Amino acid sequence: MKKPKIVVIGGGTGIPVILNSLRRENVELTAIVTVADDGGSSGKLRSAIDIVPPGDLRNVLIAMSDMPRFYEKIFQYRFNEADGPLSGHPLGNLIIAGVSEMRGSTYNAIQMLTQFFHTDGKIYPASEKALTLHAVFKDGFDIEGESHIAEHKGLIDHVYVEETATGKVPVASRNVVQSIFDADTIVLGPGSLFTSILPSLVIPEIGEALRKTQAKVIYVCNIMTQRGETEHFSDSDHVRVLHEHLKMKFIDTVLINGEPVPKEYMNSNKFDEYLVQVTHDFKGLKKEGVRIITNNFLELRNGGAFHNGKAVCEEILRINEYRNK
């Protein structure tokens, strides 16, 4: 039997959990990673040497690699605040930046590093150029930069991206569009709706490919609402926003966590961006034309609520198997 081709699109800390579980299965796995991060170490590096921000790519590289735990700790080591210009930089970001300079682009660097770290699958930045994310709010304000969006009070109407250096409409990286057309299943998220998932989808070529692909599209809905992005959002609101941005009801299935998050468990100091559990609106979801799968996808860890990668992975494989019967 041929291996099912699964493409995961997103960024942040959400998709590495899913990728780490999927890579252990008998699938052809591809990750398409957002490149609009302008904060922290990634923001400093993209400003200093004009590269695609490496942070999300670093986390995906580790998630899809079989590198020993010791190597992972080295790659993730973050210089402390007393280290001057190196302060706050993970060693892995500096390695990606150095190889990007050596190989001429971050795209080429990631292809080289996937071999170096024996990665199970392919990793592509959504674009080969660093992108600037814009959020247009309901009040008309256009806020530039992912790291500034949550600071503005109000509701986001829509987001768009442009090439940071030129202001031009971005194009997709090599092989990204073909991967979407070749896929059996495409997984969106989990991750921040406006700053981790949509920055890749609003690249025109990627959005068009998602509208035309024959693959089944699965959206892994967030467990918690997020400050400055999805306050007061239900699960149907998340899906509606995705459909509105691509001007089409392109999502086939939504995975929803049905397990309650204990309020007393959440560490509001450590995870201050997360507010309350996403509410369920099954009537609204049906209006969006999606198949709904509700299960216990919750993993409580370190004072936060996360997706259980194994449980989500099992559901994705079940959907893919059902599709191919």
Task: Provide structural commentary.
This protein has 325 residues and is α/β, with parallel strands linked by helices. The protein has a single domain, classed as CofD-like domains (Rossmann fold, 3-Layer(aba) Sandwich), CATH 3.40.50. The chain is built from 13 helices and 14 strands. A 7-stranded parallel β-sheet has the order 3-2-1-7-8-10-12, sandwiched between helices.
Structural class: alpha/beta
Q: Return the domain count.
A: 1
The N- to C-terminal Cα distance equals: 12 Å
Average pLDDT value?
94
> With helices defined by DSSP (H or I, 4 residues minimum), what is the helix count?
13
Globally, the shape reads globular
Major sheet attributes? 7 strands, parallel
Unreliable parts: none
Output the CATH class name: Alpha Beta
Gyration radius (Cα, Å) is 19 Å
* Order of H and E elements: EHEHHHHHEEEHEHEHHEEHEEHEEEH
The amount of beta strand, in percent, is: 15-25%
The CATH topology is: Rossmann fold
CATH architecture field? 3-Layer(aba) Sandwich
Task: Write a compact overview of the structure shown.
With about 325 residues, this protein is α/β, with parallel strands linked by helices. About 35% of the residues lie in helices and about 20% in strands.
